[in-house]
Amino acid sequence: MFRKKTFGGAVEYLIVGLGNPDRKYENTRHNTGWMAIDYIAEQEHCRVNRVKFKSYTGECNIGGSKVLLMKPTTYMNNSGQAVVEAMNFYKLPPENVIVIYDDVSLDVGKMRIRMQGSDGGQKGMRSIIYLSGKDTFPRIKIGIGAKPNPQWDLADWVLSQFTSAERKTMNEQFEKAAAAAELIIKGDAARAMNLYN
């Protein structure tokens, strides 16, 4: 259904990791998307250090396509500003924009791949859908676990650090997210969902 589109020598896909730019957000649950991009960049020997489209960006080749890795610096709730700017520049459809982000409804160590749908309460995804007017973005949701106590403030929970054991599990999830993104780019989203959902 989602066939790879070719755009000459230009960027053909975006892989966007959602997060927040300030140092205080480093390695927090809410920066799971950024951490996933860092993992992919390391695997692909790509530096995500160029400032473009209100993001840190880096180009690499994944699955036979030219891909722009993006870490928006707009803060989570305005992620759509960065994503839509890049989409417009490269004239990319939503189907060629893979978004990776944290999901509190999934346990740590769980992942969900969806090819379209609502934002599920994730404000970064909400911004992307709202500003683009489309919801057909492939998305890779990585579980960060629910609040351990109902009394906890959700903001405090998502901005908390992973434990050392959780970090090991998260690295395994980043490896799976990288593999899933490559399959989506190759036009095999169904296989990605079968393997990793």
SSE order and pairing:
Elements: E1 13-17, H1 32-43, E2 50-52, E3 55-62, E4 65-72, H2 79-90, E5 97-103, E6 111-114, H3 123-132, E7 139-143, H4 154-158, H5 164-185, H6 189-196
Parallel strand pairs: 1-4, 1-5, 5-7
Antiparallel strand pairs: 2-3, 3-4, 6-7
Helix pairs in contact: 1-5, 2-3, 5-6
Keywords:
single chain; 197 residues; alpha/beta; Rossmann fold; seven-stranded mixed β-sheet; 20% strand
Verbal overview:
The protein has six helices and seven strands. The protein is of the alpha/beta class and 197 residues long. The chain has a single domain, classed as 3-Layer(aba) Sandwich (Rossmann fold). Strands 2-3-4-1-5-7-6 form a seven-stranded mixed sheet, sandwiched between helices. Helix 1 (32-43) packs across helix 5, helix 2 crosses helix 3 and helix 5 packs antiparallel against helix 6 (189-196). The longest helix has 22 residues, at 164-185. It is globular, with a radius of gyration of 15 Å. The two termini are 18 Å apart. 43% of the residues are buried.
Compressed to H and E, one letter per element, the order equals: EHEEEHEEHEHHH
Q: What proportion of the residues form beta strands (DSSP E)?
A: 15-25%
Helix count from the secondary structure assignment? 6
What is the level-2 CATH architecture name? 3-Layer(aba) Sandwich
CATH fold call: Rossmann fold
What structural class should be given to the helix and strand makeup? alpha/beta
Q: Mean of residue pLDDT?
A: 90
